[in-house]
Structures are given as structure tokens and as C-alpha cells.
Amino acid sequence: MHNFNVFTGEPRKFDPTFKGPIYNRGCTDILCCILFILALLGYFAVGILAWSQGDPRKVIYPTDSKGQFCGQVGSPLEKKPLLFYFNILKCASPLVLLEFQCPTTQICVERCPNKFMTLVKALLKEDDREYYKQFCKEGVDMTKVSSGQERKITRRCLPALETLKGGVVVVGNKTTFRDDYAEKNINATDLLEASKKSNVVVEARAVAMRIFEDYTQSWHWILLGLVIAMLVSLIFILLLRCLAGVMVWVMIIMVVIVIGYGIFHCYMQYASLKGQAGSDVTIKDLGLQTDFSVYLQIRQTWLAFMIILCIVEVVIILLLIFLRKRLLIAIALIKEASKAIGHVMSSLFYPLLTFALLSLVIAYWAITAVFLSTSSDPVYKVFNTTECMYSRDTCEPETFNSSNITAECPDAECLFAFYGGETLYHKYLILFQFYNVFLFFWCANFVTALGQVTLAGAFASYYWAFKKPEDIPAFPVFNSLGRALRYHTGSLAFGSLILAIVQIIRVLLEYLDQKLKGAQNKCAKFLLSCLKCCFWCLEKFIKFLNRNAYIMVAIYGKNFCTSAKDAFFLLMRNIVRVAVLDKVTDFLLFLGKLLIVGIVGICSFFFFTGKIKIVEDATPTLNYYWVPILTVVFGAYLIAHGFFSVYAMCVDTLFLCFCEDLERNDGSSDKPFFMSPELHQILSIEKNNAKRFCSIAKFTATTKNTSVYSDTSQDQTMSFCKNLCKCI
């Protein structure tokens, strides 16, 4: 049964003494392990360097161009808590989002301007001249710089813009104003765009403070919701172990009912808003709103929800209809996975370790990114109107007046130029940011790979135990984790590196896409879209291949490339089973996650919106009720995914072991199967299907209509059928 390759007919060699995961194994992919360790050391060095140079307070608190915090207690700026932008138009630069700073001079002021007037006009009156002195740098005379009526927004002075009917933007009741310094007219719309860019971080901070306030009011209810999600997931897993067949059908029916109820609820909301004032406004006209409850007051939102749920419902029903015969086979595979998890219960808690490690990686990346982004310093250069040998040289404002530059160039000034720095560190700052992102992908993929190979080794130990549970080794999860770290760190780093390279390329493509949004070159846009699609598909394929390669690493202990090749060809030899059994099982597990998230999400929605009369008084008062709801839903999904990811890894491992078992053994007394009787039923069904296919192929190849098939095609078909029948 097992001694021939289906495609070539050549004999295949196996180790007759193979009894499961090999314990006498050696280290694999050592060079990649060394490279990964060196990369981690470099990552730590970048983090230390960033922490020594950056200051995350720049993200939260306003700082002037000298790096001083406005309103800081005990400093000369204690009574100047607000930040004034010298030229707000420069805040429209994309550098604002990267560096958290506008590339213009900024000074701390006691209060924002409340008059709309240029300083050129202010020079005409003594009172105005004295008033505007507070918005100039110390020691500098009044210059021809434009200023306007402004308002303070989270301790920053921004133009007091208004939008009239028809969408006309005005400042100080004017659509344009004269910039006497640049000798040109400026539209109020330009000020609006600049204010938006400069206020991105500010608005995000304001929303974050309201969200934080909601968390302080509802954190205990959120924890209760997550505990309920964990209990529901655990009960579901335990029931799935005991009543896999019944639970799968109950799960399918419940998912259909929950989605159906969602469709009904959306329709009722859609119908109830008919005729109400403002309910016919479109989402596009409404624009982006921080209060998401506004969207629930328009009919188009509920119509969109209803259409999406209807599509999901139809897709699920159609899949169930066409795959109804395959569900029984998938249920048998889930039953076997339930038995495996029952004997390796510690596997259910391993996702906690993966979650903790991923949280550590994400936290390190985020903190390093913030420190890198806030490590830029203000750079001052010499500006002058006449010829000067020091023109555009770097200078220090504190010592400029006492230097020899003012003696040789009397009209020279030391003015703010940009944020950055001219040291070696600042020169390669963008490379440090890139390295931070790349190592984040590499480390995150490594943590995921470690979890996959650990669980694969544990479940492979279960499958290849001839007498279950007597032959299952003690502490299979911890033993598998120890083997992975001791012998296969290099293989895990190798697979993670390949995936990280593809992911960083996708990030670069997204960056280019943002840059080319305003371009008119349709050919470049089309090419970029094709590249994004191709690399998305490549990332999905590599994830699939890596997952199965790690299973082979856990079983055989070979290096990554050999394991990936063996896994790929093993799957290709069982491509029908992969498409039918493995993917149908994944679909059923996805429905399980969807059911748990749906139940917890609906309950949290009714609770936080005060629609449960029994506990209505306990409902907290919130700014955004969607904050705790989304938190509970997202947390419930992570919890359910953690439990079901163990199931998915168990199914994938048992499936590969099942395919290996079919090729190694024939069920005889000399070569008995390691699979259970339930999995043997799957073999019988697949064997009958293969025999029917073989009979049809033989009949087709020997048909009397020889004009359709050549002699060569007949020989190839007969050879394929002969080898296939040997395998079954």
C-alpha cells in the first residue's frame, strides 16, 4: 500500500523502526540560529539607543522648538502652558505623523491670540504692537509674520476656523487673508488642512482620554465578560470532547439562528427609523465621527449591517448544503482531536504563554517606536540676506550673538530650520525605524512558530503512541517545548525570517501606495495593486507551508527546508483530503469561534446599552458604549481563538500523521495502523472514492473512441491508476 509514489511509481523508503517523534535528534539550521541571536542583540542595542535619545512626553505634552515643555512646574515656562505655531501651514507636512512635531518654530505662550490681524498691520498701533510681542521669540523685534484669531485645543493654539453653509471655510469671517511676509494671499482652506495635520495626535489624545474614562467606569464589567467568554469556550471544548457530533450540529444551527436574529434586529431598526428627521443622511455625508452612536441613528448603517449578515448567512447555508456529506468525515477528525486534547490537557493553557510572549514583543516594538519618533532635536541654521560664508551652517541660538558670525555677517540670524539632527544617530534614524518594524515581524512570527511546533510535537506523541494513553510520554507539551528550543531554534528562525521578509515588503508596498495616491499614472497604480495582491497570496501560502513544515520538524527533527519539502509533497499526494477534510474542519472550528463571539457580543451589547431591564441600574454611564462592547468582543475572539487554535493545530498535526500512517502501514499485523477506528473509517471512505475514480479512469483510458486519446495519454493514465491502486 505504501511503497509507491502515486505520481512517479518509484518505490519510497521508510524507517521500519519509526515510532513517532524522534528523541535522538541534533541541532538544525545553526547559521540561522546564530543570525537570529545577533539580530536580537542588535534589536536590544537599538532599543537602548532609542531610550537614551527619545522622550515620549513629546507625544503627550506640548514642547517648544528648544525642547522645553510648556507649563512644566518649576521651569521658566510654568506660566506659559500653551503652544503657538509660528507658521501653521508647515504642519501639513507628512513629517508631522512620523515625528510628532511640526517643522516650524514653536513657542510657549500664556494665552492664544484672540484677534485676527497680521503683525504688519499691528505695527500701525502701539497697543497691537505690545499685544503681539508675547507671540514672538524672546529678544526678537516684531517681524512681518502672519497670525490670526485662534483657539486653544488641548493646550495648543490652532486657528478658529468655521464652516458656513455650502462648505465655505472662513477664519475671522474671511475666506482669504494676506501673508505680508510671503507677499501672497492664503485661503482659509489651507489653514484647515494644516490644522488637521497638526492636530492629529491632539485629537487622538482627546479621544483616548474619553476612552480611558470609559474603561475606568466599565473595567470590572469587561473582565466579567471576558471571564464568561473563557467559561463558554472551556465548556464548549469539554462538550466537544464528549459530544463532538452533537455539538457540531448544535453549533451550526446556533450560528444560523444567531445570524438570522441579527438580520431581523437590523431590519427592525431600519424600519423604526423610517420618517425620522436626519435618518436618511448617508454615511458619506456624515463623515468621520468620534461618537459612533451617531451612525446608529441613520438607516443606511442598519441596511449595510443587514446586507452583510444576509451574505454571510447565504454563504454558510450553501456551504452546508454542498458539503453535507463531508461533514461526517470532518466530525470524525474533530472527535479524534478531542481525544488527543483530552489526553494532553496542558495544551489548552499553552496559548497563554504565546499570548504573553506576543504581548512582550508588541510592547517592546511600540515603546521603541515611540522613543525613536521622539528623538529628533530642533536644528538651527544661519540665515542671512547678504553674502556670508556661514550661510546655512548649523548654529546654537544661546551662543550665536556672542560668536564671530555676527561680527562678519551683521544681518545673519540663527533661525529654526527643521526637526532631526545631524549626528550619526539622526542620520540613520529612518533605518532604525525600519529595523524596529522588521524585527517586530521576525520576533512575532518566531513566537507563533514556537507555539505551533510545541503543540505539533505534543499531539504527534499522542498519535504515534500505539497503546493510548499508556505509550504517551509524560508532560508531552513541556517535552516538545524543550526539544524545540534546544534543537530547532534555527529552523523556527529560518521560517519566521522568510515570512518577515514578505511582510516587510508588503509594508513597503503599502507605503508606496500612500505616496502614489495623488499620482495620475494609472499604469503604476495597476502594477502596484498587482504586486500587493501577489505578495498577499505569497504570505498566505508561506504561512500554510510553514505551519506544516513545523509539524514535520516536530516529528522528524530535520531542518526547515527538508521539512517544508516533505510536508509539501505529502500534502500534494493527499491534495483531495487536504481540500475536503482539513479545510472543512477549519470551517467548522471557525463557526465555533463565531458562535462564542456572537453570544458574548450580543449579551454585552444589550447590557451596555441598558436594554436588559433586570440589570439596567448597574449599567455604567459611558462616553462611547461601543468601547466596552468592542473590547469584550475582541477579547472573546482572542480567548476563543486561543482555545480553538489548539484544536486547529491538533487537527493539522493528526491529519499529517494520518497521511504518513497511510503511506507507512497497511493495517496488517506486521504493519498495523496507529490511527483509531474512527479515522480508519475515513480511510475506508477515501479508499472507496479512489477506487471509483480509478475504475472510471481505466474505463476512459480503454474506451473504443481512440481518436480522443493518444497512446501516450492512455499509457500515462494506466500508469497513474496502477500506482494509485497500489497506494489504496
Automatic annotation (TrEMBL):
Locations listed in the record: Cell membrane; Mitochondrion outer membrane
GO MF annotation list: antiporter activity
Top-rank taxon: Eukaryota
TM helices/strands, residue ranges: 30-51, 219-239, 246-264, 302-323, 344-367, 439-466, 487-509, 587-610, 622-649
Keywords annotated in UniProt: Antiport, Cell membrane, Glycoprotein, Membrane, Mitochondrion, Mitochondrion outer membrane, Phosphoprotein, Transmembrane, Transmembrane helix, Transport
Reaction(s) catalysed by this chain's protein: ethanolamine(out) + n H(+)(in) = ethanolamine(in) + n H(+)(out); choline(out) + n H(+)(in) = choline(in) + n H(+)(out)
GO cellular component, one term: plasma membrane
The name this protein goes by in its record: Choline transporter-like protein
Species in which this protein is naturally found: Cyprinus carpio (Common carp)
